[in-house]
From TrEMBL:
Membrane topology reported for the UniProt record: Multi-pass membrane protein
Pfam families: Wzy_C
Major location (coarse): membrane
Keywords assigned by UniProt, alphabetized: Membrane, Transmembrane, Transmembrane helix
Domain O-antigen ligase-related: 210-340
Coiled coil: none
Subcellular locations according to the entry: Membrane
Listed name of the protein: O-antigen ligase-related domain-containing protein
Organism: Candidatus Sherwoodlollariibacterium unditelluris
Length: 412
């Protein structure tokens, strides 16, 4: 009886996470409901069967995550009269993600489930691409009935603004592209639920067509940070998938490619001047003012919007338009360093596993997930996606899947 209950709980967590992924661009309410179901059922499963293997196997990763949260806790010392708000942000906005991340890593150690996840991403992203096209050319968006800003205006798709759509596409396009680059379609047995051999070309063309649609959708957002993130992800896919051909020059190409992003980012920031969105620089100055006052522990988690006006002499409530600056301003340099070590460790292990693998399905899935995560973080230099309800779930889902798959393949 207990075994049946555990199987039910495991399946419930798995399909609840599928629900979160599918509804990321569609429904904020359903994201919260499915994430809540996943966390509650996962906790019950762990109470009935206290297996901490996935936690111990990723102890370095969770150590960095623990330190990140520990320094955010310490930032409450500087929150002053806003300590109640800081505590709420810490426990509710940030506090749900460690358990959610653990649930993903624990549930998706079976690599066959990761294939299902990518199929869910593919289906949801296809709907997003199609709704962007209908919005662009016919003036209606069928997922959330968003009003079009006009043919010549940036596309927003089912999101509230172009930056949200760009962030979603920046993360998802490399995943879909990598899946489409796999040559194994049609060579699996029919009982695997995939296409027969004679449909291989059709499936690959379909996936590449969807990729092209999503790239065009990203272009129509007119979001420069999103373009840079997408380019970073696509470069990663190209380099890693061709590793065995360019093995001798891989690392020089890899580092030179990404060092090239420094002037590109500077150029992108230059074009923010003398435009309406040049107000971002005012926010950057406000964030830097908070950092100079409390560089070690920050001004207090969740307080940026309350204190920023004091450092900019401008009214209004805004985010910093830079995830890394906002983390530093709110919770200090140690918190930011722990976050960078946390995501850096994920990239290190993922790249290490990818480069020693043959070009199997798992190789392409891991490459796509890692590239999507990289693109998301590059774009986060211009936005605060980790503070967005929808996009923060996107980040933690993709990060968790990357960790789960790289761990499973590293053990294999």
């Amino acid at each position: 009886m207990k075994l049946r209950i555990l199987r039910f709980l495991d399946a419930a967590v798995e399909y609840a996470i599928y629900g979160v992924i599918f509804f990321i661009p569609i429904s904020i309410a359903l994201i919260g409901i499915f994430a809540g179901i996943a966390i509650v059922f996962f906790v019950i499963k762990k109470i009935l069967s206290p297996d901490f293997t996935s936690l111990k196997a990723n102890n370095v990763l969770f150590l960095f995550l623990f330190l990140f949260f520990a320094f955010m806790d310490l930032s409450l010392l500087n929150s002053g009269p806003l300590v109640a708000k800081s505590l709420k942000v810490l426990l509710i906005k940030w506090g749900r993600f460690p358990l959610f991340l653990w649930a993903i890593i624990d549930t998706f150690q079976d690599t066959r489930r990761v294939v299902k996840v990518v199929c869910v991403f593919l289906f949801s992203a296809t709907l997003v691409g199609l709704t962007v096209f209908t919005q662009k050319f016919f003036g209606f968006e069928f997922l959330r009935s968003r009003v079009s800003w006009g043919y010549s205006s940036p596309s927003i798709g089912p999101f509230k603004n172009p930056n949200g759509l760009a962030a979603y596409l920046t993360c998802v396009v490399p995943i879909v592209l990598s899946f489409g680059l796999w040559d194994g379609f049609g060579y699996l047995k029919p009982n695997h639920g995939l296409v027969a051999k004679w449909k291989k070309v059709v499936v690959k063309l379909f996936l590449l067509l969807i990729t092209a649609i999503l790239i065009m959708s990203s272009f129509w957002t007119l979001c420069r940070g999103g373009w840079l993130g997408l380019i970073a992800g696509l470069i990663f896919v190209i380099l890693v998938t061709n590793y065995h051909r360019i093995k001798k020059v891989f690392w020089p190409l890899f580092w030179s490619s990404y060092l090239f992003f420094a002037p590109l980012i500077g150029l992108a920031l230059f074009f923010y001047h003398n435009r309406r969105d040049s107000y971002r620089f005012t926010l950057f100055h406000g964030a830097w003012g908070m950092i100079k006052e409390h560089p070690l522990l920050g001004k207090g988690i969740g307080t940026f919007m309350d204190y920023c006006a004091l450092y900019t002499n401008n009214p209004g409530v805004y985010y910093a338009h830079n995830c890394f600056l906002q983390i530093w301003a709110e919770s200090g340099i140690f918190s930011l360093l722990c976050f960078l070590l946390f995501v850096g460790y994920v990239f290190y292990r993922s790249i290490k596993v990818s480069l020693r693998m043959p070009k199997s399905l798992n190789f392409f899935l891991l490459t796509g997930l890692t590239a999507g995560l990289l693109g998301f973080l590059v774009h986060s230099f211009f936005e605060v996606h980790l503070y967005s309800f929808q996009l923060s779930f996107l980040f933690w889902v993709v990060l968790g899947l990357t960790v789960a798959l790289s761990f499973s393949l590293d053990q294999g």
